[in-house]
Design a protein that fits this description.
Elements (H helix, E strand, L loop, with lengths): L16 H4 L46 H4 L17 E5 H6 L6 H8 L3 H14 L10 E3 L6 E6 L4 E9 L4 E8 L4 E7 L2 E4 L3 E5 L4 E5 L4 E5 L3 E5 L7 E12 L5 E6 L11 E7 L5 E8 L3 E5 L1 H12 L38 E5 L15 H4 L21 H7 L3 H25 L8 E5 L6 E5 L16
Parallel strand pairs: 1-2
Antiparallel strand pairs: 3-4, 4-5, 5-6, 6-9, 7-8, 8-11, 9-10, 10-12, 11-12, 12-13, 13-14, 14-15, 15-16, 16-17, 18-19
Helix pairs in contact: 4-5, 8-9
Length: 470
């Protein structure tokens, strides 16, 4: 989550063979040794080794206080607040959105299932996995400049992805992804609504996410849960996801309702997800439970209800080990971070739908990035000649922060903000409206709501009319 100045680069707002060979990392290959500064090694089997660490470790935030900035801004719009670059992570919000694709195998699994219930289970797991990378990610991504783009082609994972910052006020990021085997289309637009509650910052998601399984002629839509960052005044920053997510299959009428539970006073419900899949007649077909930071399971409704009844009656249940229980110091305040071991209480007979990938051992020194996230800003030799000039990898402030040059990064950020301000004033003077390049505003064909739709043509690589934003 993030926020920035009204005069800055925006508010918070997440296959060409030649290009495919130059882009990104397999998240399951966390043991690979990668490159720094441009050279990427080739494995014997021809698969490229991508970097598994950043060029420079994370800059310490211990000497900086978010509250020292926010206390002057209570009652103001968060879009008016400028945050020091030290509170950022070296990724654009467009690159953060791309992390939805880290668990793309769940889309592939949905495509392979003949049973619509199993397809919905896989789609539900994918929707939960999309927010899993945010766990412990308390740094804010850079706000995209108007017209900024990001592309990612992964032949090993079978997809390509393009996103664009299509609006500055309100800040809107649009994205489109498709399977290289023409088996799915995944697209949407995101424009979170930020609220500052004094001790916490809440990002309420806006915008529709759509997944189309082309082989089955099915379309699913949903909206992400609310994300909240706690302890912005004092203490260790921590975040939670909460709210109801409804995934609708517009072809069958099936619906999956997932409840991301709020933490609660003692942290008992922290990270928990619970819900069910129902058919068009509202008959419950299965129950889903787990944690968005760990794993997701499903079982039939009868087994689940029987288990819960026995639990309430004090029947024999799987006992949690001491390390799995909620540990809370007597000196902890209610808004402090609950220390909870992420272990889901397993119901016998359940089926595993998804489990989170392990993070690299040095993740804490890399903004708590996943292996997938570590590679997103990797700029290899020769890539500049292929990418659109608006691609995130070419942003000098993000690049310098990644390399540990914080002073230069801060100055570059200010320069880009000034450049964007000047361009906006020039357009206003000439009464010229901003024209998006790769997306256009339209109507979602399944929900009937306003949406940003991909116009096509990006991978033809005609970038002659791209704006000069860097």
């Amino acid at each position: 989550t993030g926020f920035d100045s009204d005069n800055s680069s925006g508010d918070f707002s997440e296959a060409n063979h030649k290009v495919a060979e130059m882009l990104d990392l397999d998240p399951h290959q966390s043991s690979r040794t990668g490159e720094h500064n441009g050279e990427t090694e080739i494995q014997e089997n021809g698969i490229k080794r991508h970097r598994t660490s950043l060029p420079a470790p994370m800059f310490s935030r211990s000497d900086f206080s978010v509250w020292s900035i926010l206390k002057k801004c209570i009652g103001l719009e968060l879009s008016k607040i400028t945050m020091p670059i030290v509170f950022n992570e070296p990724l654009s919000f467009l690159q953060r959105i791309t992390e939805y694709m880290e668990h793309i195998y769940l889309i592939n699994k949905a495509c392979s299932h003949a049973d619509p219930l199993e397809r919905m289970q896989a789609v539900a797991a994918f929707a939960v996995s999309a927010v899993a990378s945010q766990w412990e990610r308390t740094g804010k991504p850079f706000n995209p400049l108007l017209g900024e783009t990001y592309e990612l082609t992964r032949e090993d994972l079978g997809f390509r992805f393009i996103s664009e910052q299509v609006s500055h006020h309100p800040p809107i990021s649009a994205f489109y992804s498709e399977g290289l085997n023409k088996d799915f289309i995944f697209h949407g637009s995101i424009y979170p609504k930020l609220k500052f509650w004094g001790k916490s910052i809440e990002a309420e998601p806006r915008g529709t996410i759509t997944l189309e399984l082309l082989k089955h002629n099915e379309a699913y839509t949903w909206t992400n849960p609310t994300c909240c960052v706690h302890n912005v005044i004092i203490g260790k920053l921590w975040l939670e996801q909460y709210g109801t997510v409804e995934i609708v299959n517009h072809s069958t009428g099936d619906k999956c309702v997932l409840n991301f539970k709020p933490c609660g006073l003692f942290g008992k419900e922290l990270h928990r997800v619970e819900g069910y899949i129902q058919d068009k007649n509202r008959k419950k077909l299965c129950v889903i439970y787990g944690k968005w930071t760990e794993c997701l399971w499903c079982t039939d409704p009868t087994t689940y209800e029987t288990y819960k009844k026995n639990e309430k009656r004090g029947g024999e249940q799987k006992k949690l080990k001491p390390s799995e229980e909620v540990i809370k110091s007597e000196n902890d305040e209610a808004d402090d971070m609950p220390e909870v071991q992420d272990t889901v209480q397993f119901i016998p007979g359940s089926k595993l739908l998804w489990r989170i990938n392990c993070r690299p051992p040095n993740s804490s020194q890399m903004y708590n990035f996943t292996s997938f996230a570590v590679s997103l800003n990797e700029l290899e030799k020769g890539m500049e000649a292929i990418l659109a000039p608006t691609d995130c990898r070419l942003r000098p402030d993000i690049r310098n922060m990644e390399n540990g040059n914080m002073d230069v990064a801060s100055k570059e950020k200010e320069r880009l903000e000034e450049k964007q301000r000047a361009a906006r004033k020039e357009r206003a003077k000439d009464e010229v409206e901003w024209q998006t390049r790769w997306f256009h505003q339209g109507t979602n064909p399944y929900t009937g709501t306003s949406d940003w739709l991909y116009s096509g043509g990006y991978f033809d690589r005609n970038f002659s009319d791209c704006p000069d934003i860097y």
